Amino acid sequence: MKKWIVFAVMAVMLAGCGSGGTKETSKSEKSTASASSTEQTTSAPEVSSSEKKIELKEVDFDVEGTPYKMKVIDSWEIIPDEELSFNAEDEDKVQGLMIYGFKKTDFESLAAFKDLIKNQFISTEEIEIKEETISETAYKTAHYEGYLYNFTGTYEGENVQMNFYFLETESDYALVSLVGSPSFYDKNGDLVTEMLNSFVAV
């Protein structure tokens, strides 16, 4: 891919969140340098004997001023962004992760937050969604509960799978957005689960 699809998608989402009935929320608390990785590195199970073992690293970031931590793939580049809590992608810009959120006081419920994001996404023409692949289920990490909304689509002639994890924490409604080729999820299901389970406020 020439660029990571979520950049275009999230721009549409953020525009909607700014005028979609939420309270005005200052982004001044966010620091573009807050997504700093620590020295801790853990190893994930080897996918196959012919593939390189994938390493995870722990990163720190803020969601609306609340500190969080999470494990992400070690080889992914962390890209500071004033509008996002956390942003990282692989060197080929094929797989990546974005995190964004609002204070719970800005929405009446997690479902309202989820529906706003979904409606804004559907309005974009950046990706051709394969309707038959759309799925929405309850989702639970080691720390939080919420929803998983995902689908497969076509972007610039390539298939991509997008997973949107809508999670309710003690103080925030957070969106953890993971994108990759369908084969990325097929080969790394346990790794994705480990990453989501590591997302926690500190």
In short:
The protein has 202 residues and is α+β, with helices and mostly antiparallel strands.
Write the layout of secondary structure elements.
Elements (H helix, E strand, L loop, with lengths): L4 H15 L16 E8 L11 E9 L2 E8 L3 E2 L7 E4 L6 E8 L6 H13 L5 E2 L5 E6 L4 E11 L2 E11 L3 E9 L1 H6 L1 H9 L2 E2 L1
Antiparallel strand pairs: 1-2, 2-3, 3-12, 4-5, 5-6, 6-11, 7-9, 8-9, 9-10, 10-11
Helix pairs in contact: 1-2
Protein name: Lipoprotein
Keywords: Signal
Strand content: 35-45%
Radius of gyration: 16 Å
Number of strands: 12
Order of helix and strand elements from N to C terminus: HEEEEEEHEEEEEHHE
**Helical stretch tally:** 4
Query: Tell me, what's the shape?
Result: globular
Number of domains: 1
Give the class from helix and strand content and strand pairing: alpha+beta
Annotated CATH topology: Protein Transport Mog1p, Chain A
Mean residue pLDDT? 80
Instruction: Tell me the name of the CATH class.
Output: Alpha Beta
